[in-house]
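Q&A log
Question type: sequence-to-structure
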Amino acid sequence: MISCEIAVEFETMQQELEEIKQMVRDASTLEDLNHLHHKVGASEQEIEAAEQRISKLDRLVAWCAWEKFESQCSLEELQARQEWTAIMNVQNEYEAKYC
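Response status: OK
Response body:
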């Protein structure tokens, strides 16, 4: 169940990031980028929801890491966290550059 939840969260967030990356690739002018900034801009509720999802994922991974120590959790859950960190780094770079 834990690995399924992590996989679903990871896949959803990965899809969102791919959509943002595609919009950036499609932008051809500063006006497009400005429009993109407003389009991607999240409401306060969306930000809170994302923070809750990330917090939930962090708790799941922390629990899984402890279980891995006790040899009851697969390596996939831990790898999902590493991949998620890489995705967040790309998103942070995007926000720093365009927002």
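Response note: The radius of gyration is 16 Å.
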